[in-house]
Design goal:
Chain lengths: 297, 346, 430
């Protein structure tokens, strides 16, 4: 097994893309948990919903095979918009009631949403998988072929990361959100309605999931049940990175994506288990994650 | 008030007419079941018993210790596989299994599960809340993958087929009674544990860990022991599953299976000893019934859980007034809401 | 083209469709019962179970199978049902591709709905678990999509009948073609990539073993396995490409084959190596018609275009197109054969009594869409062929099929091996 550049470079690219996709889904989860302390089991299901909506919008433009890549953008925007609204609605009606409850009950509520939304997707779209094939030729880089779409994903991932960072650190709303993380009471004492903050944050989080769904659609066929596998990986990413830390999520996602990419060749039998070994190690040694603060444990 | 004293226990049961009536009703119903129910529904009841035992073992961690584990099915699955591996050899060769081997298959399951729970629990009890949940989930998934990958030993994704109880209890009614017997005995043992000083210390830990440790209680040790006990009973439940289902598959160890135990505890009521058994019954019955009419079972159960969590998190048994259930002097402590929130982060 | 764009509403329609078919097939059966004053020609309902998933990686394969079953049942009920007097009632259950669900649902429809036969399953693991139940309950299990050799081998049951080519047959079939190609192209090294579950492991194992015999100088460089339903195969594909094998054998079925194909193309996999021997069934040919690389060598299980001269196949094509507006897929084709095969078994037995039907099917010769076929006595495997071909645009169809000039139809007798495993399985059962 030659570990030369010829092997490392493409694996790295594939791993980074994988990690970036994970980040895109997990970012919203991390945000929601960081601010509201709710671990949204249904987050990957929102991702799936976003993908399906994007697909349906794209079909309005004609057959999806060989479709112009630029059309993916408006389609994704529609998905994001729909999901943000759904996020608002769900927060107002259901999640809001769970703030005072225990962790198990919050988990159960969001898990119920997984089941419900999953079946609603099945009801609306049926059981066939959905795929959008752009037919873009691979790019030749350093003598290796790379999937052109990887650059799109990495670009979107970095943009989302930067965007979130700017949002949280440079906008006044973002600053309020960060303040709410530290002390809900103080923010309320300042006359700011915490319930609005929570609603917006949940909406943004869910919208991010929708974005991730739209972005991934040109890369992979989506089918019912894809959310179930993905949510566990999201949890792992958020735990390893540290709850509430966007940079932690980013780093952890990339770490896990790249590790998987190499593990399947270097340790094939254990590749699927590697992700769990990582999270177990982190939880034992440093439960608050790579970038989390001890306070949050 | 020595709860561990069996005589005192018996006296308490006998002196409470409502409890006596309940027990008598349960006895009559369980005896009548094979007569009244069709063969399929008797299968369902047997499944409820096994699942209920599994859920009650989970509740030792959830209801009594206040932590949610998403990896509990790993012990159930390990138990199932332990039994399957023990009995498959003779079954393949002779088509039947002797009592000796069968019983040792049943007994080896909780032992294997206990060992696994001991190892895993040692790490898990260091954490609480969401971290405990995710760590247990991760260990569960790790065990799942070990079973899945180890094709030569466990059959991997094929699973292990050809499992059967001994000819004497092969018939549906017979296996039902056998399962009933095992589950009743196991439940009684669990009940005794929960009513023992050990059980009360667990509750104290659940209510306020810090205060309990100030009393000199080695919190981690008690949590660990509880984890091992819970795992063992899950393993015992698993041992009954293989011969019942005629096969085992890796899915028995997965987190979705663990989730079913959580549902059962929630539906029935995690604050009540028999809550998870009732919850298992409702869940399994609903599943068996609903799938006759629709393929949208997840939507159905998801809605049920949603409504329960929102409006009745205490579960079905919370509809019963406390007076009826409480044994004299053993009322569950009802906490005011804001301290409950603190408990999650303790 | 119009058909493709309506995908959003397809879902609702499809889910209603199934129910409509169920209702209409039962209704059709009722309507054709002769009026009471004529005679008691109506007999007892024939309860038929269908255990296939409607979610998960296998759903798109199972879907066309379910449609075909509904159509066939409606057709038979239009004639009064089996033997003209036993209207068929379908009892469909979703296995969720989980063996314990398959077990429970199997028991449910056997004990409660009193089904006499179960058509299914998708995953071989579910089929194996179900066999324990059907054998014990003495209910027929009619398999087609679930085709692990273990079903008719180590786990043999006298109540299980396999209507599709099993994994051993398929891997043996493709191995011959691949060995020829390897010899011609001087291929020396290959990699396998497969779905890590029973079927995938089974078919890969068979392929590797047989290729080692037929082409000893062709070496297995590496085995790659991914989780069923894995949505991102990029890391696998890039790794394969850096290893530069002469060819790749995919042990992949269902949605994941689409993932592999589409992501492979986006990464230029086919510029570096050849992908040979994958499952390119009529599902893939229709679903990926715009994207499937022409010239790709693959295999399928029931290629309608290989039997256009068969009157029964023409009937299937017509029925399926009338009902669904599409050509029948491999899964539809096999399951048409299952239902009509069952009908023939019942006709031969003269009764719907399961034991009689089971005995009638034993070693029976059936008229199928694939011609006249016979069950092998030792393992109840129908002697159906495996189809190997190159993806090719044909002017007769709106999607590519196999190049009919170069297509190879590998007959069962050449590849199904001995009865050894089935004998061992039979011993285990008694």
């Amino acid at each position: 097994m030659e570990l030369g550049f010829d092997f490392i470079f493409p694996q790295l690219m594939a791993g980074m893309s994988r990690g970036m996709l994970l980040f895109l889904v997990a970012a919203g989860l991390s945000l929601i948990f960081g601010v509201m302390n709710i671990l949204n089991f249904a987050h990957a299901t929102f991702w799936l919903l976003g993908g399906y909506i994007t697909y349906s919008v794209l079909t309005l433009f004609g057959p999806t095979a060989g479709i112009s890549p630029l059309l993916v953008i408006p389609a994704t925007l529609v998905a994001i918009a729909v999901l943000v609204l759904i996020g608002f609605a769900i927060e107002r009606t259901l999640v809001q009631k769970m703030y005072d409850r225990d962790v198990p009950e919050q988990l159960l509520l969001t898990f119920a949403l997984v089941l419900i939304i999953g079946d609603v997707i099945k009801l609306i779209w049926g059981v066939e998988d959905r795929s959008v094939f752009l037919g873009l030729p691979p790019v030749e880089l350093f003598g290796q072929f790379v999937n052109l779409y990887y650059f799109v994903i990495i670009g979107v991932g970095i943009t989302v990361f930067a965007g979130l960072h700017l949002f949280l650190h440079k906008t006044s709303f973002g600053r309020i959100v960060r303040a709410a993380v530290h002390s809900r009471e103080m923010v309320e004492a300042l006359g700011i309605r915490i319930s609005t903050i929570y609603m917006v944050v949940f909406g943004i989080g869910v919208g991010l999931a929708g974005l991730a769904g739209g972005v991934v659609l040109p890369l992979t066929p989506l089918a019912l049940g894809a959310d179930i596998d993905l949510i566990i990986q999201c949890f792992v990413v958020v735990v390893v990175g540290g709850f509430g830390s966007i940079i932690g999520t980013f780093v952890a996602a990339l770490l896990i994506g790249v590790t998987y990419s190499f593990a399947i060749f270097l340790w094939p039998d254990g590749a699927l288990a590697v992700i769990f070994l990582i999270v177990i190690a982190i939880l034992i040694v440093r439960p608050w994650g790579l970038f989390g603060t001890e306070l949050r444990t | 008030m020595n709860e561990l004293n069996a005589r005192a226990l018996a006296r308490r049961i006998v002196t409470s007419p409502i409890r006596l009536a309940c027990l008598a009703a349960i006895l009559v119903i369980s005896m009548a079941a094979p007569v009244v129910l069709s063969e399929y529904w008797l299968h369902v009841v047997t499944e409820i018993l096994i699942f209920g035992l599994f859920a009650m073992s989970f509740n030792l961690i959830y209801g009594y210790m206040g932590q949610i584990s998403f990896g509990h099915a790993a012990f159930f699955g390990l138990g199932a596989y332990a039994t399957a591996i023990t009995i498959r050899g003779e079954l393949a060769q002779t088509g039947d299994i002797g009592w000796g081997l069968f019983l040792s298959g049943i007994l080896v399951a909780p032992v294997i599960a206990a060992i696994a729970a001991g190892a895993i629990g040692w790490f898990c009890v260091r954490l609480t809340g969401i971290y405990f949940a995710i760590l247990t989930l991760s260990f569960g998934e790790l065990l799942y993958y070990v079973v899945f990958q180890w094709y030569g030993f466990t059959g991997g994704d094929d699973g292990i087929q050809g499992l059967r109880p001994p000819a004497f209890i092969l018939a549906t009614e017979a296996y039902y009674f056998f399962t009933l017997m095992v589950v009743v005995v196991a439940s009684f043992v669990m009940w005794t544990i929960t009513r023992s000083p050990f059980g009360y210390i667990l509750r104290a830990i659940r209510e306020n860990k810090r205060r309990a440790s100030f009393l000199g209680i080695n919190v981690k040790l008690y949590q660990w022991v509880n984890f091992v006990i819970a795992g063992s009973f899950a393993g015992l439940a698993g041992s009954l599953w293989g011969p019942f289902s005629r096969s085992v598959a890796p899915g028995l160890l997965g987190w979705q299976k663990s989730g079913e135990a959580v549902f059962a505890a929630l539906i029935g009521g995690a604050n009540y000893f028999l809550g998870p058994m009732l919850g298992a019954g409702v869940f399994t019955f609903l599943h068996a019934y609903v799938t006759k009419f629709t393929e949208y079972w997840p939507l159905t159960i998801g809605t049920v859980i949603l409504l329960l969590v929102l409006f009745r998190p205490g579960g079905i048994l919370s509809f019963v007034p406390d007076r009826i259930w409480a044994m004299p002097g053993t009322a569950e402590i009802k906490e005011p809401k804001d301290t409950q929130k603190k408990r999650a982060s303790a | 083209m119009k058909k493709i764009t309506d995908q959003k509403w397809d879902g609702i329609l499809k889910s209603i469709d199934r129910r409509r078919f169920l209702i209409s097939s039962a209704a059709a059966g009722v309507l054709t019962l002769t009026p009471r004053f004529v005679s008691a020609a109506a007999g007892e309902t024939y309860n038929l179970g269908v255990l296939l998933p409607s979610t998960g990686a296998g759903a798109n394969w199972a879907d066309s199978a379910i449609k075909a079953i509904n159509i066939a049942v409606a057709d038979i009920n239009g004639r009064g049902g089996f033997l003209g007097k036993h209207p068929i009632k379908i009892h469909y259950r979703d296995t969720h591709t989980k063996p314990d669900v398959a077990t429970r649902e199997g028991r449910s429809i056997i004990l409660d709905e009193k089904v006499r036969a179960i058509v299914g399953t998708y995953s071989s693991a579910c089929a194996l678990a179900l066999q324990e139940i059907t054998h014990e309950a003495k209910v027929l299990q009619l398999a087609s999509i679930s085709n692990s050799a273990k079903i008719v081998g180590a786990n043999y049951s006298s109540y299980t009948y396999e209507f599709g080519p099993n994994t051993k047959m398929m891997s043996n079939a493709i191995v011959k073609a691949v060995a020829k190609l390897a010899h011609r192209n001087k291929w020396k090294r290959y990699i396998t990539i497969g779905q890590d579950y029973e079927w995938g492991r089974n078919i890969q194992r068979g392929f590797v073993k047989e290729l080692a015999k037929l082409g000893p100088d062709v070496k297995l460089q590496r085995e790659l396995w991914f989780k069923l339903g894995e949505s991102d195969l990029g890391s696998y594909i890039s790794g394969i490409m850096s290893l530069k094998p002469d060819f790749v054998f995919p042990a992949v079925a269902g949605k994941d084959s689409r993932t592999l194909m589409e992501q492979g193309q986006a990464m230029g996999l086919l510029k570096v190596t050849s992908l040979v021997g994958g499952q390119i069934t009529t599902v893939e040919l229709q679903q990926q018609k715009d994207t499937l690389p022409r010239g790709l060598v693959g295999m399928s299980r029931c290629a309608f275009f290989a039997h256009l001269d068969e009157p029964l196949m023409q009937k299937y094509i017509k029925m399926y197109r009338d009902a669904q507006g599409q050509y029948p897929t491999d899964m539809s084709c096999m399951n048409f054969d299952v239902v009509y095969g069952l009908e023939q078994g019942i006709q031969k037995a003269g009764t719907i009594d399961t034991e009689a039907v089971k005995n009638a099917l034993k070693g029976a010769t059936l008229k199928t869409g694939r011609g006249t076929r016979t069950f092998r006595k030792c393992d109840n495997q129908l002697n159906v062929p495996t189809y190997i071909g190159e993806v090719f645009d044909d002017p007769d169809y709106p999607f590519p099929i196999y190049n009919r000039d170069k297509m190879i139809v590998v007959e069962a007798e050449d590849v199904w091996g001995t009865c050894e495993e089935a004998e061992a399985g039979r011993k285990k059962r008694s």
